[in-house]
Amino acid sequence: MGGYVAVATTSKDGTVVHLVDSSGVSDVMPDPTxxxxxxxxxxxxTVALEEFLREPFFDSQLGSLTAEFQTYNANFQSLTKVTVxxxxxxxxxxxxxxxxxxxxxxxxxxxxxxxxxxxxxxxxCFYFFDLVYRIGKGFPTYLRNFWCYVNACSxxxxxxxxxxxxxxxxxxxxxxxxxxxxxxxxxxxxxxxxGFYILTSSFAVFxxxxxxxxxxxxxxxxxxxxxxxxxxxxxxxxxxxxxxxVIFIGFSTFALTSFSSVSANFINPWVTFVSTFSLFMGDxxxxxxxNTTFKVPFMWLFMFFFFFLSVQMFNAIINYAYNxxxxxxxxxxxxxxxxxxxxxxxxxxxxxxxQRKPKAEExxxxxxxxxxxxxxxxxxxxxxxxxxxxxRERDTKKSAKxxxxxxxxxxxMVGCYIGFLYVNMLVEEKxxxxxxxxxxxxxxxVPMLLPYSNRTMLQTWDDISTWSQVASWMQVGLPAVVFNxxxxxxxxxxxxxxQQLIGAGMRCLRSWNCLITGTGNGGNSTRIARIxxxxxxxxxxQGSRSEAxxxxxxxxxxxxxxxxxxxxxxxxxxxxxxIIFPDVAQNEAEDAALQFQLVFENQPLCQTxxxxxxxxxxxxxxxxxxxxxxxxxxxxxxxxxxxxxxFVKESASFVIELVAHNSNxxxxxxxVLTFYQTPAGKVHKDIRxxxxxxxxxxxxxxxxxxxxxxxxxxxxxxxxxxxxxIMLYQEMQTEHTRRSVAESAEKSGLFTxxxxxxxxxxxxxxxxxxxxxxxxxxxxxxxxxVKEGDLQQKLQGNYGEIVDFASELIAQEKEYNRISAANLLxxxxxxxxxxxxDPRMQRxxxxxxxxxxxxxxxxVVLCIVLFACTLLANVSFGPFFPGCIDxxxxxxxxxxxxxxxxxxxxxxxxNPVMAVIFFFPYLILVYCVFTNIFFAILDRFFVSADPxxxxxxxxxxxxxxxxxxxxxxxxxxxxxxxxKGAKKEGPQSRADRVAVTAKIIHDxxxxxxxxxxxxxxxxKPLTEVCDVDEKLSNVVKWSKEExxxxxxxxxxxxxxxxxxxxxxxxxxxVVMKKVDADETKTREEMEEAHRxxxxxxxxxxxxxxxxxxTLAKYIWLLxxxxxxxxxxxxxxxxxxxxxxxxxxKMRFTKExxxxxxxxxxxxxxxxxxxxxxSEAELGEMIQANVASASRVPLDPNSAMEDxxxxxxxxxxxxxxxxx
Length: 1219
Known about the structure:
- By secondary structure, the chain is an alpha+beta fold.
- The chain contains 36 helices and 20 strands.
- Strands 9, 10, 11, 12, 15, 16, 17, 18, 19 and 20 form a 10-stranded antiparallel sheet that branches.
- Residues 25-30, 348-373, 396-400, 486-504, 1008-1017, 1161-1176 and 1186-1206 have low confidence and may be disordered.
C-alpha cells in the first residue's frame, strides 16, 4: 500500500532499525552483528532505535503508523501476526488506534478427527443426491419449499469447506517447512484463505443445526404451527420494514446532520445507521454524552414511532399470523387429541413390571375388597365420556385444600427459617468483610518492575498483566498487604477478643480483620501465610503438540533455498497446552513428579506436597511454602524464594492463603489470592474472601441467650417441617386407601399411587423436595457445628492444618448455603397453593395450563435457533472476540440479545462481514419475532372470563366475627347474574376476531358466495334438513366411500406426476389412458343399468299391475261382505231389543217401568238378576260371532293357500274370484 518501511530487530546488544530500500538495488550484505541475517532484506542503512526516534520520522506530516510483527507460541504451535495501527485525522488528533491479530495453527494433525471428516463428507454427498432426487421428483413444486434452499445452502457450505480446507492444507505444508512464514504477504494470503474457510464453516454449521426444525416439523404439529407462523408473517414483516425503513432513513439523516459535530456515535452515515438501529431496539446509550437543542425532541419522536408504535405493529402482525395459522390447523390438533384419547382408552400398561395379574373374578368386574369396576365408557359419546371421566377422577385430581390455619402455620415456619438464616449466615457482614479485604489488596500500591524495562513504577493489583509482575507483586505487594495495612496503635484492641484467637503483635487488615498464625513444620516459628505453586512440564519443542504428528507435518522453522537449515525451531522448549487450574489435581500438563524443597535458616520453607494429602490448596498438591509472621523474616523468605528459582517460567499458578478473624462480629475469614496463566501467556488473577459466623462453644454458658437466639428459629422450623411431612404422608396414605377400594388392582399399587399422588398436583413434589432439602441442610448444619467445635484445638496446631481446617469449614458452610438458597426458592413457591382457589388465580393457572404445550415447543424451537446462532457466532467471532471464545460464552452472548443487550461494534471489529450478516437479522428474529410469538401464545390461551365478585365479609367472618360484634357479617350481598339468563358478551379477543376473519376467508376461497356475492350462502348439516334413517345413512356411507375413492385416485396421479419430468408426456401416457379406461367402464355400467331398467319395465311392472288388480278385487269383495254382515248385525240387534221390551212388559207393571225410567230403585228378585246377566252374556257372544265373521286376512294369497278352513264366507269369496 506504499509508505515508508523500516524493520526493527532485537538482540542482547539492543534494538536496531533497518531502513528498507524500496528500490531493491542495495548491495549491503547481511551483517550478523547488526541482527541482519536475511539476504532478502534490502536496506539502505541501519541505526539504533534511540537514534531512529530522534530523527524526523515522526513529524507533522505523519498520517498513519502501522507496526507489524510475528509471534510464535510453542504451546499451541501457532504463528500470530500482530498489527498495531494508529490513524491521525486532518485536525491533528489521534483518530483511531487498534490492535489486530491473525493466528494460524501450524499443528493440525489429528489421528481420529479425519475419520469424522470422511464420514461427514460421505453423509454430505448422500444428502446432495437426496436433494437432487427430490428436486427432480417434485419439480417444480419442491422448489417452493423453504427447506429445499436451507438444505442446498448447507450442502454447498459443507462442500465448500472441504474444498477450501484441502486447498489450504498443501499451502500450509509449504508454509511450515520453508521460510515463507517470514513473508507478511504470504502470511496474509493464508490468513485470508482461512478466513474464507471460517465463513463457509459458520454457514454450514448454522444450516446443519437449523435443519433439526425440519425433522421436528415432520413429526410435531406444534413445531409446524410455529414455523408456519414465521412464514405467514414474513411477507407482512418485510413490507412493514420497508415501509418504516423510509422514515428510518429520514431520522438517520436528521441525526447525522444534527449530532455529528457533538457525538462520535453519528460521525458518518454507517455509524449513524448502527446507532439509530440500536436506539430502535431500546439502547439509549448512543444518546448519552452530549446535549443539543434537538436531542429531546428527536428521542421523543423516534422512540414513540419506532420503539412503541413499530414494536406494537410487529406484535400485531405476529399475533394475527399465530392465531390465523392456529385456526387453519385446528382440525389437525383435534385429530391428534382424538387419537391420543383413543390410544389412552385402548389399555393402560403398568410401569411396574412385577405387578401381579388380576384374577378371573377381577376381570369379570370385581376388584380387591369386593368393589365393582366402573362401567365401560368406550361405548359412550366422546363428549359424554370426557365429562364422566372428569367426574370420576374429581377426587384424584383434587388436592387437599389448605385452610387459613395451615397457611398461618406455614408462614410462621417460613418466617422462622428466614430468621434462622439471617442470624447465622450474616450476609451483610460477609459482604462488608469481602469489600474491606478486596479494597486492601486492590488499593495497595507497590513499586513493580515494568515489563521489558529496568524501570519501576507504583502499580496496583489491577495493573498486573504479566508473570514477572506477579513475582514482583508477591515479593513487594504481599508484605505490604499483610504487615502495612494497619497502624501499630490499633493492635492492642484487636487482641482483646473473648476467644483470644489473635496474639499480641499480630497484624490485622483494616484494623479489625486480624490474621491467624500457627506453628511451622519445625515448631520453632509462627506462620501467617501459605503459598501453593503448580508447575508445568517442560518438553523439547519438536514442532508439534503431539508425538503422533508425522515428521513431514511439523514446523521446523525454515530452510534456506539450498535446503540447508538456517534457523531451527524458534523456541527450543514448549510447555503446557492446557490451563493448569490451582484447585484441580492430576492435571495432564502439570509436572506432578517434581520434587522441590527449599530450606531457610535450617528450617524447611517450601516442599512438594502430593495431591489428596493435606497441606496444599484444596488438597490438590503442588509446591507449598509457609511464610513467617515476622515481617523481616517474611521479606527475607520471599527474597530467598526469588533467588532459589521458586519463580520460574514453568510456574503455572500461585495461590496465597490467609486466615483472619474479626472480633467485632466473631467471624472467621478465609482469604484466597489466585494467579494462573494460560498457555497463551495471559495472566488471570482473582480475590476470594469466604467468611462464616462462629458460635464460640467454649464460652457457651456465658452466651446462652445468644445461642438460643440463633438456634431457636431453626428448631421451630424443623419441628414444623416434621409436622408438614407427616401431613403429606397421611394425605398420600389416604389416597392409597381410596384408590385400593375405588379402582382396580392394576391401578392401586403402591408405586402407582405414589406416582399419581405427586403427578396430580404440582405443589406436592415441590413440598417433598423442600422437606428433603430441609432435612439435608439440618444434617449439614449439625455437622458444621460439630466440626466448628474442633476450632480451638486446631488453632494450637500446625498452620497448614489451620488453613486446611478453615478451607474445609468454609466449603461445608458454602454447601449449606447453596442448599438453603434453593430451599428458600421452593418455600416461596408454595404460597401460590393457598391462593389457587381464588377465581382470578384459577384463570391465570388455567391460561398456563392450556398454553403449556405451545410454550414447551416454543422453547424447543427457540433453543434450536439460539444454539444454531451460537455455533455461528462461536465459529465466526470466537478467534477475535472474547465474548464468543467458547460455546458457553457464545450462548450467553446470543441470549443477551433477547434481553435487549447487544454490542455491534465488538462484532464488527472481530469480523466486519459476518457482523453485518449476523447482527441485524438475528436481532430482528429473536427480539421482534420470537418474543412476540411468546406473547401471542399467552394472548390466545388467556382465559378472559369475568371472575365472581369477592365477598370480603364472608371471608373475614370466621376470624373477626367474635371480636367485632358490631358488624353484621352476614350483610354481604352481591348481585349475581342469572345462571339461566343469557350471558353478556364481552369485547371480542384477538383470537376470536381472527377466527371470524379466517372463517370468512375460508368461505370465500371455497366459493360459497350467495346471490351475486351479496352474502354468503351458509350450508346446513343433513340432520337439520331431514330425518336420517337407515337408508339415508347407507347413502351417506356410500357417498363417503366414493369420495374417498376419487381422492385416492387423484393422489395416486399426483404421486405418478412427480416421477415424470415432462408434464405433457405424463398427460398423454398416464392421465388420458386412465380417462379412457374410466369412460369405457362408466359406459358399460350405464348400459347395464339401462338393460336392468327395461327388464324392470317389461316384467316387473306387469306383475305389479296384476297384483294390484287382484288386491283391488279382494278389497271390493271384502267391503261387500262387511256391509252384508253389518246389515245382519243391525237386524239381529233390533230383534234382541224387541224381545227385551216384550219380556219387561211381561214381568213388570207400567208403574214399575215408569219408576225405572225416572231412576227410582226397586227391589229385584235374585233370579231376575241372574236372568239379566244371562242376557248380557248372550249379547257378548253375539258380538263375538259378528267380529269373528268380519275378520279378513291381510295377505290375499294366504286365503288361497289355507285349504284347511271351512268358513263359508271365505269359500264364497274364493268362488267369486275364480269365477
